[in-house]
Task: structure prediction
Amino acid sequence: MDRWTLQMGYPVVTISKNDSLDNSVTISQEHFVYDTDAKIQNPELFSFGQHERILINPSITIVKNSPIQSISVRRSLLTDAVLTVTGYLPQNVPLQMISYLSQETEFLPWHAASRAIYQLDKLLDRTEDHSLFSDYVLRQVEPKYHKLGWPAASPDGSFMQVAYQAEELQREVMMLACSFGNKHCHRQAVSLISDWISSNKNRIPPNVRDIVYCTGVSLMDEDVWEFIWMKFHSSTAISEKKVLLEALTCSDNIFLLNSFSFFLAWNLSHTYSKAVL
Result:
């Protein structure tokens, strides 16, 4: 196990069909790392690449667009699509793969798809293609978002417990919908934040508070940011303080973010000084 556990990265296996009449494919293996500089500076650590050419049975037929039934296979394929960021795959590959998401019913493939989507979002941010990309993602996400909805409340006001995988799937889809501009998701988040401010009662479902807080801070005025800031200081629950703190970074207001950065720097410095003393 030393080659797997004691060195960075993992193996990437590429299978290429040869354009010939001998029904052969070439399988190649190489060492994958995100940090390409490390590979250049230490080539001896990444020298297990090898190639093998094999013949396949002429009777085997590969059917394009056939359904892939295994959850683990769907998850693995979508996880591998993240390799597009490093240049291993064309960018259209993950876009084509996520086009089936409206039919996907399991959390793990959705989670893998969201990782690929957020990676592509970072890559395309501030480019002229970003709006097209966002629209495309929304078209894949919205059918599932409208089907799953938001966490349901019981008559007594508590939130109904659902299976873990179902809850995580709902969270994943909601996060994508709000992140990429679904208007219904935005209205729901703004409504919940507004209700919290006016009533001073937090009726936001606990498992989606991070999504709602971040969406509210990013869409609403600085009064909301200051409200979240006040709640961060008054909260005694560490888990809630963490969610509130992360939500404060969702603002696009440069002045607020600079003030926030100054507070964090001062707080860390003050904490370190107390620790030393």
